[in-house]
Design goal:
It is a single chain. The chain is α+β, with helices and mostly antiparallel strands and 666 residues long. Helices cover 33% and strands 8% of the residues. The chain has a four-stranded mixed beta sheet. A two-stranded antiparallel sheet has the order 1-3. Strands 2-12 form a two-stranded antiparallel ribbon.
């Protein structure tokens, strides 16, 4: 049976991403499988590790190579250029600079039956077969008991991750923990193969159980000889912490967007508020296990000043360090097939374009920028919005800046960077703000000018001579080589410039010269880190009233201290959620946080994200900069973004043939 099981897999495991390379000691060391037989895979430990590497590759991680509408592990143009987006761009954090992303729901983030090798149930079957095969290998003496136990725990970790990817999209799904090959009976209706959906509560409980099975025999530390990107005990606890918090929030906030229909009646979607306590407790215990026992610690927790804090925070994402619990690495895709990613070439600001023809496409919103604090540090944790007006009315946004009221009482600045001085170090380490430096260049973000007579030119090329007889340009420079914002909006092929006034910095390899070709980036994706665990614990403690609230307060304040703050803020839900948004910005958590807390539809009901347009004001002898709060160009053009709450649960495909109960509204 084992040979039959593997026959169809041999051909597709030829170029695994966890294979040979110049730093292969960090990965699972494997033999070439170009002409390997099923017997060889099953009769050696290296062969089994090759199968395991393929399973790791199938983890539904929303990393640099995730394409929300088409699947996982897509490199280059895989899935089409229009689908090359980051999870963050489906939220209020950021937007794709050409505006081409859908806003969540059934048009994105699908993960069920897809025609690729990362289909969830195909991969779950692979996990089941792997568990069967290592049992055979143990009985044959190919591997010892300790090796068997570790491999088994890794398989359960991968299964937990696969089902987490399913549950957060679909609610309750069929729970299958064995291969069904022997259940197929030719000539019959094969009724045994049509496994119904389990309840949503049972599905989440199953995920936590799989995490517990993973914890059992995973090592506390992984060594380079074993492959440092394999899961440790703490990675399994980290996944459990994340999944349990997700489930708890779904239970607590079901009533914010209740759904009706057969699936709801059968509890295939939805849980009761009473179910939340169990999951919050599971989150607290899993988080505490990591915090107390793992040896993981915050990276550079005690900066001497805010400048050092910004540097430290930026390099947290560019180095291997003690905060990282689980991550995915990439070899150089320019020399090794199916490796690398495109983050740097696609998202570097225009003035630092490595040489690719699509760049500058990651535009953080003013909404996230406004969330950061300054260093007033008065013990409240209150956000400090960017100051644009002398009357303090920072809640007004111009819908269409082509109709700008130039008599708004603008606060005037001497340079582009001035409004962002004294802001939280994490802002400057995560986002390239107007006037900031990147790779030695001053990044110019300017979207218009106000002429001597009070005429405004916005979102259009132009120039005017100021009272000082100097020529000024709407985009801040005479040619496109000298600016990074607002040019070519609405022109998809040319929209290589920020449409929000900001560009991404987090995860960009500012410390390297990345060639301007596809798959040239090798920065690792950090999937689970200690800061998230601190935030998970704090949120679960506040929401449930359980846990140690003194410690929870210490956890969120330790993150602020790492960012250079000197005060201590109280443990409140608002403070925890704000810290979560700031600390984990652009790491993929915001989309699912809005989903699990049922906040997505409250923001995206004809919702408009916001941009900040720096403009040069030529009405004074010495021109000044003003900053205009506006509705984001693409959201305004679309009449706002609206999310239908039925899409908190995605449509289950193939219900006519798989006989599964469809989710409400689909």
């Amino acid at each position: 049976m084992e040979k039959k099981i593997l026959k169809s897999k041999i051909a597709v495991i030829l170029a695994l991403f966890l294979t040979l390379g110049s730093s292969c000691n960090d990965y699972l060391q494997l033999e070439s499988l170009e002409k390997v037989s099923a017997d060889q895979l099953l009769t050696s430990e290296d062969g089994l590790k090759t199968l395991l590497a393929d399973l790791y590759n199938s983890i539904p991680m929303e990393d640099f190579n995730f394409r929300p509408a088409v699947g996982f592990n897509r490199r280059g143009w895989g899935g089409g250029v229009s689908e090359i987006v980051m999870t963050s761009m489906f939220t209020d954090e950021s937007v794709k600079s050409d505006g081409g992303e859908p806003m969540g729901g059934s048009t994105g983030f699908q993960y069920f039956y897809q025609d690729d090798d990362n289909t969830a149930y195909k991969r779950n079957r692979d996990v089941s077969l792997f568990l069967e095969n290592i049992e055979v290998a143990k009985n044959a003496g190919t591997i010892d008991e300790a090796t068997f136990n570790r491999l088994s725990s890794e398989a359960h970790f991968i299964r937990a991750y696969i089902y987490f990817g399913l549950a957060k999209r679909y609610g309750g799904v069929p729970l299958i923990d064995r291969a069904l090959d022997n259940d197929y009976l030719p000539g019959t209706d094969n009724a045994a193969l049509f496994i119904p959906r389990n309840t949503e509560k049972d599905t989440w409980a199953f995920i936590l159980k799989e995490c517990d099975l993973a914890v059992s025999y995973l090592p506390e530390k992984v060594s380079s000889s074993d492959g440092i990107y394999r899961a440790s005990k703490w990675a399994a606890y980290g996944l459990k912490s994340r999944a349990a918090l997700h489930a708890a929030s779904l239970a607590k906030y079901w009533d914010k967007a209740p759904l009706a229909g057969e699936a709801a009646d059968l509890n295939l979607v939805g849980m009761s508020p009473g179910d939340a306590e169990f999951f919050y407790n599971e989150c607290l215990s899993a988080s505490k296990a990591i915090i107390d026992n793992s040896g993981h610690s915050l990276y550079m927790p005690n900066p001497s000043n805010s400048e050092e804090a910004a540097t430290n925070y930026q390099y947290l994402f560019l180095t291997s360090n003690e905060e990282i619990i689980f991550s995915r690495a990439y070899l150089d895709g320019t020399t090794i097939e199916n490796q690398g990613h495109d983050y740097d070439i696609r998202y570097s600001p225009a003035q630092a374009n490595p040489g690719f023809h699509k760049f500058g496409r990651f535009s953080p919103t003013l909404d996230i920028v406004d969330l950061y604090e300054d260093y007033t540090d008065n013990g409240t944790g209150k956000s400090a919005k960017i100051m644009t007006r002398t009357d303090g009315n920072e809640d007004f946004y111009t819908p269409n800046p082509n109709n700008l009221d130039v008599n708004i009482p603008f606060k005037k600045y001497d340079d582009l960077y001035e409004p962002f001085k004294n802001k939280d170090a994490r802002l400057l380490a995560s986002i390239i703000v107007p006037g900031a430096s990147y790779k030695g260049a001053k990044i110019v973000m300017q979207g218009g000018l106000i002429g001597k007579s009070g005429n405004a030119i916005v979102y259009a090329s132009g120039s005017e001579v100021g009272l000082d007889n100097k020529t000024y340009y709407t985009y801040g420079a005479e040619s496109a080589a000298g600016y990074s914002g607002f040019f070519a909006m609405g022109r998809s092929d040319d929209a290589n410039f920020s449409c929000s006034g900001f560009s991404i910095r987090k995860y960009l390899a500012e410390n390297k010269n990345v060639p301007g070709v596809e798959r040239s980036s090798t920065t690792s994706w950090i999937d689970i880190r200690l800061a998230e665990i601190y935030l998970n614990y704090a949120e679960a403690a506040v929401e449930s009233g359980k846990g140690d609230h003194t410690l929870a307060a210490q956890y969120i304040n330790s993150l602020r201290k790492r960012a250079g703050h000197k005060d201590v803020i109280p443990l409140t839900l608002d403070n925890v959620l704000k810290e979560r948004r700031i600390e984990l910005a652009f790491e993929g958590s915001r989309y699912w946080d809005m989903f699990r807390r049922r906040d997505y539809h409250t923001f995206f009901t004809a919702g408009r994200r916001h941009a900040l347009i720096p403009m040069i004001d030529l009405r004074e002898q010495t021109p000044k900069y003003v900053f205009v709060r506006v509705n984001l160009y693409y959201d305004e053009q679309a009449g706002g973004r609206t999310f239908n709450p039925i899409n908190y649960y995605f449509s289950i495909p193939g219900t006519n043939t798989n006989h599964l109960v469809q989710n409400p509204g689909h």
